[in-house]
């Protein structure tokens, strides 16, 4: 994944508007038991507030890995990702990505904490209420 769509503000790093999302020369790598895999190489694009943006490509080209980095789950080995001008350095409630995989739960959190995360991130429940609701549903499992 290393392409720019010429003339399109969403993928043109020379765009002059204030980008909602800016991906600047981002390279991403991850380790398998056999080797280090470079998933993306120096990817750059911007997404403006009114844009709709689609990542399209064959299996294994780095789409999901890039979305994980935008979500704050993977740190780029090169380049920078900024959301509303702030560097993305960790997962946060200001961005949510849904995958068809099951490795997105933060492994450092307990099951209860992972269930509570979405409830607290929505801002609709206080911590005690979120904990009670999480325990209620975990008791059913």
Automatic annotation (TrEMBL):
User: Is Nucleotide-binding tagged as a keyword?
Assistant: yes
InterPro entries assigned to the protein according to its UniProt record, in alphabetical order: ABC_transporter-like_ATP-bd (IPR003439), ABC_transporter_ATP-bind (IPR050166), P-loop_NTPase (IPR027417)
Protein name listed in UniProt: ATP-binding cassette domain-containing protein
List residues of the ABC transporter domain.
41-139
For this UniProt entry, the molecular function terms from Gene Ontology, in alphabetical order, are: ATP binding; ATP hydrolysis activity
Q: Which domain of life is it from?
A: Bacteria
The cross-references to Pfam families, in alphabetical order and at most eight, read:
ABC_tran (PF00005)
Which family is this sequence assigned to? Belongs to the ABC transporter superfamily.
Print the keywords alphabetically. ATP-binding, Nucleotide-binding, Transport
Native organism: Pseudomonas palleroniana
């Amino acid at each position: 994944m290393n392409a720019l769509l010429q003339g399109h503000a969403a993928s043109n790093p020379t765009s002059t508007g204030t980008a909602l999302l800016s991906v600047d020369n981002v390279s991403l790598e991850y380790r398998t038991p056999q080797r280090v895999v470079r998933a993306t190489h120096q990817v750059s694009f911007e997404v403006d507030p009114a844009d709709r943006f689609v990542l399209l490509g064959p299996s294994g080209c780095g789409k999901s890995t890039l979305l994980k980095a935008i979500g704050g789950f993977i740190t780029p080995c090169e380049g920078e990702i900024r959301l509303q001008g702030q560097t993305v350095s960790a997962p946060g409630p200001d961005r949510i990505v849904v995958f068809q995989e099951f490795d997105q739960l933060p492994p450092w959190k307990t099951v209860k904490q992972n269930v509570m995360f979405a409830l607290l991130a929505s801002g609709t429940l206080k911590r005690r209420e979120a904990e009670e609701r999480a325990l209620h549903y975990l008791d059913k499992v």
